[in-house]
Design brief:
This protein is mainly beta. It contains three helices and 25 strands. The strands form six sheets. A five-stranded mixed β-sheet has the order 6-10-9-8-7, with no helix packed on it. A four-stranded antiparallel β-sheet has the order 1-25-24-23, with no helix packed on it. Strands 2-3-4-5 form a four-stranded antiparallel β-sheet, with no helix packed on it. 39% of the residues are buried.
């Protein structure tokens, strides 16, 4: 039997030194591009958060903290008769809380009282109080004087809008309806325009926490405003960095939207079919949260975060600051912007809303106290 013939050895693919060097150069180049992109995105996010900004104090002489509000009053809405509603106890993954195990609630304060105090409203049986996690709120008064309270809710960090009827004689809320919809994946705030009709902001396009983070980090500008009615649900404005507070002008002609990470307030014209078209954008130097309207003047009062990084990365030794802006004549070429209140966190941490009524100012926060001032 003849011995097997030895075949010549094949050269290994990619074994040439030049090929290996080229592959390594490409890998290093791609890694460098990725790191540069990540660094640029991180720097841009810090700028959007105003991470280096410090605030100079602007004090008001007649203010005191509201007893009974210890873990946030993220949004406030005041009825024409002086009854003020507070959403309290908001919780989010990664967000600081001073009462992590306590469910949220709705509080009320009568601003016509000589010494107003906050009381928690009872909610009708059958509503899941244990998972109540209220965020933005809005009231609507029907033609028959029925008062409806709309509440953005995050039960188990999901997204719903709860519609209640306010029963003043009993100081209670009767739950009427829970609204869920695929176009409401990340609801932040709401402004009611009917007994079951509202505009709502989505601060993100996604509902998944990780995808939300990527959306924010990459600055995709996919946040939007949705109009909801029992017969029609539609996106009516989009392209926001992170749509936050929303409200309506006293004459019902304009919708105002705060884009918190873009430091902007958008003015949108409302049409009979409830669609919106952008009229103008007011650029500011702070993170704008909720918007409240003075019904007598049309002025916009804004709860702001001078430094968003301090809000999201809580340090008790360097707490988030607070800022309140008053915007007059927003439809004019040069609106007047006044800083009414500012604090470095020594009194009030993380202001999110400011509402006025008859010379009184209420300032709420995301997860801290609330302030009552007489102007």
């Amino acid at each position: 039997m003849a011995p097997p013939t030895e075949l010549p050895a094949r050269p290994e693919r990619g074994s040439a030194p030049g090929f290996r060097a080229m592959g390594r150069l490409v890998a290093v180049g791609l890694l460098g591009i990725a790191l540069a992109l990540l660094g640029e995105r991180l720097l841009a996010l810090r700028n959007r958060l105003k991470a280096s900004r410090e605030v100079e104090s602007v004090d008001l002489p007649n203010c005191h903290l509201i007893k009974g509000i210890e873990a946030g009053s993220e949004d406030i809405d005041i009825l024409p008769n002086g009854l003020a509603f507070f959403s309290a106890g908001l919780k989010f993954p990664g967000l600081h809380s001073f009462a992590p195990d306590k469910p949220g609630g709705i509080l009320m304060m009568d601003l016509k009282e000589e010494k107003p105090r906050a009381r928690e409203l009872r909610i009708s049986r059958g509503f899941d109080l244990a998972s109540f996690n209220p965020h933005g709120i809005s009231t609507f008064i029907d033609n028959d004087d029925t008062v409806y309270l709309f509440v953005v809710n995050h039960p188990e960090f999901k997204n719903t809008v709860e519609i209640f009827k306010f029963e003043e004689a009993e100081n209670s809320l009767l739950h009427l309806k829970t609204v869920k919809h695929e176009l409401l994946p990340s609801v932040n705030d709401i402004t009611a325009v009917g007994p079951a009709h509202f505009y709502a902001t989505n601060d993100h396009y996604f509902s998944d926490p990780f995808l939300k983070y990527l959306e924010t980090y990459l600055n995709l500008h996919w946040a939007n405003v949705v109009y909801y009615s029992p017969n029609e649900v539609k996106v009516v404005a989009e392209g926001f960095d992170s749509a936050n507070g929303i409200n309506i002008s006293p004459d019902n002609k304009y919708i105002y939207v705060a884009d918190i990470l873009a430091h902007e307030i958008h003015v949108l014209e409302k049409h009979p079919n409830m669609n919106l078209t952008q009229l103008k954008v007011l650029e500011l130097d702070t993170l704008v949260d909720n918007l409240s309207i003075d019904p007598s003047s049309g002025d916009i009062w804004v709860g702001c975060h001078p430094n968003g990084q301090k809000l999201f990365v809580y340090d008790p030794n360097n707490p988030p600051s607070s800022e309140v802006l008053r915007i007059q004549n927003i439809l004019s070429e040069k609106p007047t912007v006044t800083t009414v209140y500012a604090n470095n966190g020594s009194v009030l941490q993380g202001s999110s809303v400011a509402s006025v009524y008859d010379g009184k100012l209420l300032i709420g926060t995301v997860y801290h106290r609330a302030l009552y001032c007489e102007l």
